[in-house]
Amino acid sequence: MNQSKNGIQEPESKPSVTIKEYVDLLDKYIPDWKYSWTNKLMLLHNEKAVWEISLVQFKYMITKTDKLIEIHEELLFWATTTHHNTLKLEKINWIWQETDTWEAKSWDYDKRAVFEWLRKTLEAFDESDKKHQPLMDWKRWDVNEILTKENLSSTIEKTFTWRSFDTDRVPFWKNPTFRTYLINWEQREFTWELQKVLSPMTYMNSEWVLINHELPGYPLLWEKEAMEALDAAVNAYDSWEWEWPSAKPLERINKVKEFAAQIVKDRENIILFLMWEIGKSREYAATEFDRTVEYILDTTDEYEALLAEDGKIKTTKWITTTVRRAPTGPTLCMGPYNYPFNETFTTLIPALLMWNTIIYKPAKFWVLFNYFLQKGFMDCFPKWAVNIIYWKWKDIISPIIKSGKIANLAFIGSDKVADDIISQHPYPHKLNSVLWLWAKNAWVVMAWCDINSTVKQALAGSLSFNWQRCTALKILFIQDEVFDEFAKEYLLQLSKLKFWFPFEKWVNLTPIPDLDHLDFLESLIADAKGKWATIINECWWKRVWSYLHPAVMIWVEKWMRIYDTEQFWPIVPMVRFGKLDEVKDYIKESKYWQQSSVFFWEDSNAWEVKELIRFLSNQVCRVNLNTQCQRSPDSLPFSGRKDSALRTLSLKDALEVFSIPMFVASDEKSQIWLNAIDDFRI
Fold it and tell me: Backbone phi, then psi, for 22, in 5-degree steps?
């Protein structure tokens, strides 16, 4: 043994032991080890098993045999270089200090030899087990590829821990104070304590602790302010004296166009808040803003086309009629935080154009940007047309719903929250609910498909804005023949994606604001791994405070939570299937259905493809062939089945869902009075 600088003895050469010797030692000291691991190849592949054997079983065995010390050293070295969070270096050091051996920090063996040894070890375990043969293939990949990726985990940690930036360059950092809210056409200032807002972006403070940047706060409103907003919306809708309920269609169209022009002036500020509040990259934030403005203008064009059809005098049998759209009443709009600007306005603008008055409550994340919208609403719309309130929905939305005065609910979020809100309405049958809820969109990769093209679509469909899209890929069904090839290519392409804070140019993966949701995701991962699922990019899958690197998971089965739970974050569950019946069973039993994608060659088995498309057409609302799930273009219907949505939205459908057909009928003698409809708001 050699003496190191710190006085700790080190081995003279790399230890070596045969598989038979190792297994004999296990049999000698832990006779039931084969049963405790259920023969699942988990000795070196599952970090839970490695952890247990390291801290519990090996502690006793280390003191009994030098040969086992040597093999244990290689095992721990492998674990520390491939597992980011399970085998902490300090705990490993403690074990070796307890047994008077060398510290883990002093190990300096050839990594390539360690991985070669791991490969041989895996090959020795139950090679006759056909089901798990592909699992061993993951360790047969080019060693150079593995060695390249093993450093990615530490790169992720250094990126989000040590790289910092100057907050003084951010124009909104010191002002304005976001104390205002909009009620009764007044930008009221809130004089009490503000709600703290933490950015998902982090920095290392003077005490070497990783913390989130604190942004300006927003008002903590309560029931009193909520009821004032409700009274304003109800009074404006019920009274014919106020400007908005009595406005003609052309006036409303012009007001909405003025509003679009007004918010364009604050484009840069709104993009900055998309970046700092929810971690959206500059490119994605700019795309969301521009698409929203385009949507607003397209909606006004669609409304003009609708007006051209409405109001025509028609005679059916002996009745002469003219039909127009009429408003339905005060509308409560509650947007999401993943696409807070775009998806909020896809309900707010159509409802507003159809004469309805609005109470708008933003999501708990991405609230501050509404400061810039308040002035636009005040300048472009008349009194009481739009009211903006903040804080928890249970504190300010519950009293509004319980009043029974809300006619329309536009909600984007989870089905559980939607049910809680609707159940509080005293007359639920009167509430026109427009709901976009969770989804579990499945991708079906057939044996006959273009792997490169499919992987590109899969990456775009799964990781656009960190998978935080209702239309994102949520579970992958891959046929046996292409499973290994597809998973390997997906992993290789994933390793090339850029991650850091959102102001980095063309960054793909960024932190998110909801730390509670990250804890939930880690519980999904722990549940799946505890039931024998495997993260194949384990060596560089990592969480650093508000950032979670995508986890690619195989051997996902129906008894795991990730199988049917909407994860809303980049956990990529891959399910191997042989016959299409397995996919059909999943889709029939799922509670969420919005869209699905099918990937195949054009010269594939035509009967199987047609049969699958026919089946999906009766289960989901959109079947995508060789392309990712998506909402666009906005002119197409967007909806969902089961617990994924209620109502259909497109440019035209959105206008119709927030209005109701109304017609005036007359006999031949009274036809002249039909034109009087133009004098009314309908």
Answer: -65, -45
